[in-house]
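2024-03-11 09:14:02 DEBUG pipeline.ingest accepted 1 chain
2024-03-11 09:14:02 DEBUG pipeline.ingest length=310
2024-03-11 09:14:03 DEBUG pipeline.predict start
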Amino acid sequence: MGWTRKHVLDLEDFTKEEIETVLDVTKRFKESMKSHPAKSFDFLNGYTLVNMFFEASTRTRISFELAGLRLGMHVVNFIAEASSLSKGESIVDTVKTLDAMNVDAMVVRHSETGTPKIVAENTSACVLNAGDGTHAHPTQGLLDLFTMWEKGLDFQKIHVAIIGDILHSRVARSDIHGLLKMGAKVTVAGPPTLVPAEFKDLGVDVSYDLDEIIPQVDVLYMLRIQKERQKKAYFPSLSEYTKLYGLTEDRLKKAKPDVVVMHPGPMNRGVEIEGTVADGKNSVILDQVTNGVAVRMALLHLCLKGEPRW
């Protein structure tokens, strides 16, 4: 059965087969770009992409822009502060206005959970969620899955630990949904205040002792402390947090020799991860960034034209 999905809003409703299709198409795009990293293809020549980012972003925004350009799309970066939103126009009316201009795809990042879904309900364009509140970041989840898969990890056999501010992390939620669908074992770890026990309801294990789980896992996925989303103090101090949950060189020595270290960025070096670990031989953090472009190329093509013909 071919690809039928129009929007990418949440990995929770993706099937295993859809994820496998994304991984396969991403691999093909990445292989095609290896000899010509900046080459533009004409797969989506004449299509228009609008990037609507209402929160700060480096990796996601620029990789979506590059993905569109490398597919031959016209890319428009919507600036909220310079739009009629600053005059009181609702986001729904803004979306309907863009829809009337016949744009083909919208990428939406917003601080409010559910905003991309609202956008999708008010446009004929395909909509890709680039992160909504603490809810979901499906394209990050897919690029993380691709990075693990590319490293040769067998989802059916691996144990992934996601460590840090789970409570406020849309990345954690998307990665959990994707990993579980692919058959991986997942443990979330961090302070009790940032790792609610109800996460067990998603089908993951919960741990408050990083040193206990480090020797058991194949992937250490580190998350930053999202101070911008925190309304109160969740732990005594950053130094105390680092002491208990930071991935240092000494702590990494307790892990399997081939453990894979990941981070979605932005990193706070010296807090959740030591700089030498982030830059070390076990780290695939920059591979994640590289793969973000190919994954988003794959998703844009799939949602607009289905599986590409090579």
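2024-03-11 09:14:41 DEBUG pipeline.report The mean pLDDT is 94.
2024-03-11 09:14:41 DEBUG pipeline.predict end
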